[in-house]
């Protein structure tokens, strides 16, 4: 679907299907990596972080955006309310965040522990709404 949309928009993009723990790219191939709303689903998160480090060029940076583990029910409610959904859709979305997504999400401490098992030594966190942004940089 993404390939079809890119072609219609006249955008030249190389889409690849792969595993975040074994990326099909050479060492030091990218300046920047973005992982949005997916990290909590990785079966091998530390290995995925190591792979991100491997494929980043020196001084390259990654951005991981995902749900915060410690997000409160009230924060989820405010987020869902701001989406303009009908009552049923808002209920389903709220329950999905509370019972399916948040239990798999990571906290800052979780990420810091994982990063300690990788070559990443420089990183920062930012909280945005119900999300957490992790900005690791390859030294």
Which residues sit in consecutive blocks of at least 5 with pLDDT less than 50? none
User: Between the first and last Cα atoms, what is the distance in angstroms?
Assistant: 36 Å
Name the structural class. alpha+beta
CATH architectural type of the largest domain: 3-Layer(aba) Sandwich
Q: What characterizes the major β-sheet? A: 4 strands, mixed
- What is the radius of gyration computed over CA atoms, rounded to a whole number of angstroms? 17 Å
List strands and helices in order, with pairings:
Layout: H1 2-8, E1 30-36, H2 45-55, E2 56-67, H3 73-81, H4 87-101, H5 108-115, E3 122-128, E4 131-137
Parallel strand pairs: 1-2
Antiparallel strand pairs: 2-4, 3-4
Helix pairs in contact: 3-4
Walk me through this protein's architecture.
The chain is α+β, with helices and mostly antiparallel strands and 139 residues long. It has two domains: 2-68 and 106-137, Rossmann fold (3-Layer(aba) Sandwich); 70-104, no CATH class. It has five helices and four strands, in the order H-E-H-E-H-H-H-E-E. Strands 1-2-4-3 form a four-stranded mixed β-sheet. Helix 2 (45-55) links the parallel strand 1 and strand 2 (56-67). Helix 3 (73-81) runs antiparallel to helix 4. The protein is globular. The termini are far apart. The model has no long low-confidence stretch (mean pLDDT 96).
Put the structure in a nutshell.
The chain has 139 residues and is α+β, with helices and mostly antiparallel strands. Helices cover 36% and strands 24% of the residues.
């Amino acid at each position: 679907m993404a390939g079809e949309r890119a072609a219609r928009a006249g955008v030249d993009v190389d889409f690849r299907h792969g595993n975040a723990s074994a990326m099909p790219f050479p060492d030091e191939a990218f300046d920047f990596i973005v992982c949005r709303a997916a990290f909590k689903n990785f079966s091998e998160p530390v290995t995925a972080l190591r792979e991100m480090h491997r494929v980043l060029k020196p001084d390259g940076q990654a951005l991981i955006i995902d749900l915060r583990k410690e997000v409160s029910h009230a924060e989820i409610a405010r987020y869902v309310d701001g989406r303009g959904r009908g009552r049923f859709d808002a209920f389903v979305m709220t329950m999905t965040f509370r019972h399916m997504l948040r239990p798999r999400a990571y906290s800052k401490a979780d990420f810091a522990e994982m990063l300690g098992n990788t070559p990443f030594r420089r990183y920062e966190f930012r909280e945005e709404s119900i999300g957490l942004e992790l900005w690791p940089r390859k030294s």
